[in-house]
């Protein structure tokens, strides 16, 4: 098996989670999983950043609808780090359509919608790098050594 890689991934806590007072719950799930919080801020998205971020959906009929939703309220953006963090976070996020997402996932437990599906999470290591650079300046990313590594990972995973 290939050696697991340390990765960073980008999360956006969407306006539905903010309005429903789920922000703490969502961050708590990532923390409890063992992901390391390395950046976080509350921002208001605009058309330029949304066109960039949802570039893969620009031609879809629902693009104006999600853009309006995402810029209608502030959002919380965070970067999380861990071994294979991108795939791990996608697993606990659940599938795009909230009402079909597995129970136990964030979307499965808190969402009935495709648009109001609580969080965005990077879908590949390559996109995670782009998205982190899109939302954070280098000085906003904090490198820190966590104290519980010994109980979080096996010895060879920590090397
Ligand atoms: N979306 C939507 N309608 C659709 C597909 C997607 O409103 O039919 C929204 C939804 O909020 C989703 C976002 O567009 O989270 C980005 O879509 P993507 O396919 O990248 O899904 P994700 O990676 O968020 O699961
Ligand atoms: Mg996506």
Folded structure, characterized:
- This protein has 159 residues and is α+β, with helices and mostly antiparallel strands.
- It has a single domain (6-158), classed as Nucleoside diphosphate kinase-like domain (Alpha-Beta Plaits), CATH 3.30.70.
- The protein has helices spanning 15-19, 23-33, 47-53, 63-71, 85-93, 106-110, 125-135, 149-152, 155-158, and strands spanning 6-13, 36-43, 75-83, 119-121.
- Strands 2-3-1-4 form a 4-stranded antiparallel sheet.
- The two termini are 16 Å apart.
- Residues 57, 62, 66, 96, 114-115, 117, 120, 123 line the site of uridine-5'-diphosphate.
- Uridine-5'-diphosphate is lined by residues 57, 62, 66, 96, 114-115, 117, 120, 123.
Q: Key terms for this structure?
A:
binds uridine-5'-diphosphate, 18% strand, alpha+beta, Alpha-Beta Plaits, 159 residues
Topology overview:
Elements: E1 6-13, H1 15-19, H2 23-33, E2 36-43, H3 47-53, H4 63-71, E3 75-83, H5 85-93, H6 106-110, E4 119-121, H7 125-135, H8 149-152, H9 155-158
Antiparallel strand pairs: 1-3, 1-4, 2-3
The structure holds uridine-5'-diphosphate and magnesium ion.
Uridine-5'-diphosphate binds at residues 57, 62, 66, 96, 114-115, 117, 120, 123.
């Amino acid at each position: 098996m290939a050696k697991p890689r340390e990765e960073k991934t980008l999360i956006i806590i969407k306006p539905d989670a903010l309005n429903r007072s789920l922000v703490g719950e969502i961050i708590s799930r990532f923390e409890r999983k063992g992901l390391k919080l390395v950046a976080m801020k509350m921002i208001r998205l605009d058309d330029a950043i949304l066109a960039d971020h949802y570039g893969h959906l620009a031609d879809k009929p629902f693009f104006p609808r999600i853009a309006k939703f995402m810029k209608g309220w502030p959002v919380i953006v965070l970067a999380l780090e861990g071994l294979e963090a991108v795939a791990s976070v996608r697993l606990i996020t659940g599938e795009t359509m909230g009402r079909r997402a597995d129970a136990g996932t964030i979307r499965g437990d808190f969402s009935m919608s495709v648009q109001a599906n609580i969080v965005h999470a990077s879908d590949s290591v390559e996109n995670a790098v782009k998205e982190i650079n899109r939302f954070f300046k280098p000085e906003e990313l904090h490198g820190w050594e966590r104290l519980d590594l010994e109980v979080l990972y096996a010895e060879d995973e920590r090397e």
